[in-house]
Specification:
Distance between the termini: 75 Å
Largest sheet: 6 strands, mixed
Shape: elongated
Number of domains: 3
CATH superfamily of the largest domain: Ribonuclease H-like superfamily/Ribonuclease H
Mean pLDDT: 83
CATH architecture of the largest domain: 2-Layer Sandwich
Low-confidence stretches: 220-227
InterPro entries: DUF3800
Organism: Pseudodesulfovibrio profundus
Protein name: DUF3800 domain-containing protein
Structural class: alpha/beta
Number of helices: 13
Number of strands: 6
Radius of gyration: 27 Å
Pfam families: DUF3800 (PF12686)
Strand content: 5-15%
CATH topology of the largest domain: Nucleotidyltransferase, domain 5
Order of helices and strands: EEHHHEHEHEHHEHHHHHH
Helix content: 40-55%
Length: 405
């Protein structure tokens, strides 16, 4: 049996624990990121970052806050690190969805809970993990934090260790700071802009997983926008959230894969800059592989994952370009048109086969008469009758062909 690859997770965060975001300048988002590297690559990557620090900032610590709103300079840093051998896992916490009177109103409880949530998710993907987090609070707090983690994490995995580090002396914590700060410029309302999509495009290949928590359920019409699309949006979001929760810890691996795909589609649709684009089967299969699943072959992905998601009532608007959650009348129409383009020709071919056999053998021979084909027979008859009805409808003056046709 091979020895599991050891990984180090460098953890950093941006935002505060303040739950009252009505305070001037207080963002509703808190972003916590774990940058993951193989232990065997740790020294090499650290040296690369030290060299980058010398070239780009005179040997000073690489800090997102120093780059700030200089988006061209941030792009230069991101271009420098995009080919390095690391990945990251991020949690985006929407503090507006946390009950203000909960235990998370207390700073120590907040940081312990959020970081533990991140560690649980990351540790589920790696059998041997050492976490190094940027220092927070004083020595007493960090000591109590270590004790808290030992009590909570021991049963989750066989090899989990945790330390605090000083970012000034730990180049890979500086990388975690750069990634976390850049995600802030992708998702925080006051920092988002035309630059956001370009940042996400560079970071996405390094993304092991990114998750928004908690995901908000919406009541119909809550947004204040009237119309069918709004009701569809609420329905799709709520049904997808329920599906993710119901299946993410299922015993069946395919159910967990289905949950991961829906969660990815949810995040993409409601948080990503390019949310109007679909995610291809290849992208979703690679996402499952990044999460530690065996990468499913495309036929298996379509039948065991996409097919089962649709069976559960999750409407996916699937085109040649990929998949997205159907959340508008246009999406639903695309979904129906896709199915119509497949189903109607199949029914037409069955009708033709039925007619040809009757013509050749006799009208008393119906290939669809067998008990197991009764549903098909009913569908073919309905299709044939409806086709005839539509084809023989009286044409309105507006529909009459012109002399030029």
């Amino acid at each position: 049996m091979s020895t599991p690859t050891k990984y180090i997770a460098y953890v950093d965060e941006t935002g505060t624990n303040v739950l009252d975001t009505s305070t001037n300048g207080e963002s509703n988002l808190f972003i916590c990121t774990a940058v993951l590297v193989k232990e065997s690559d740790n020294e090499k990557l650290s040296n690369v970052l030290l060299d980058m620090s010398k070239r780009l900032c005179g040997g000073a610590e690489i800090k997102s806050s120093r780059i700030g709103k200089n988006h061209d300079r941030r792009l230069r840093f991101l271009q420098e690190v995009k080919d390095l051998d690391f990945s990251y896992y991020a949690l985006i916490i929407n503090k507006d969805l946390i009950f203000r009177e909960s235990g998370l109103q207390h700073k120590k409880s907040y940081y312990k809970y959020i970081n533990r949530m991140l560690y649980e998710r990351v540790s589920s993907e790696f059998s041997s993990l050492h976490v190094i987090a940027d220092t927070i609070g004083g020595q007493d707090y960090m000591a109590s934090y270590e004790g808290y983690l030992k009590g909570k994490m021991l049963n989750l995995m066989s090899s989990f260790t945790h330390d605090f580090g000083d970012s000034a002396e730990t180049p890979l914590l500086q990388l975690a700071d750069l990634i976390t700060g850049t995600l802030g410029y992708c998702f925080i309302d006051t920092k988002k802009g035309s630059h956001s999509e370009q940042f996400r495009k560079i970071l996405r290949p390094k993304e092991l997983h990114i998750e928004a928590w908690p995901i908000r359920r919406r009541e119909r019409g809550e947004s204040g926008i009237c119309g069918q699309d709004d009701a569809l949006l609420d329905s799709v979001r709520n049904r997808a959230i329920d599906f993710v929760e119901d299946n993410k810890t299922a015993g069946d691996e395919f159910c967990r894969m289905q949950s991961a795909v829906v969660q990815k589609l949810l995040f993409h649709q409601f948080f990503d800059c390019d949310s109007k684009d679909s995610l291809s089967a290849s992208q979703l299969r690679s996402h499952l592989e990044n999460l530690g699943f065996d990468k499913p072959k495309e036929p298996t992905f379509r039948s065991k994952i996409i097919g089962k998601i649709r069976d559960a009532g999750i409407v996916l608007s699937g085109k040649s370009k990929g998949y997205r959650l159907a959340s508008s009348e246009q999406d639903i129409h695309a979904y129906l048109e896709h199915n119509r383009s497949i189903i109607e020709p199949m029914l037409g071919r069955l009708r033709s086969a039925q007619s040809v056999i009757k013509a050749d053998v006799g009208t008393d021979v119906d290939i669809l008469d067998s008990h197991e084909f009764q549903i098909l027979k009913s569908l073919v008859e309905c299709y044939s009758d409806t086709f005839l009805e539509l084809s023989t409808e009286k044409v309105t003056p507006e529909e009459e062909p012109s002399s030029s046709t």
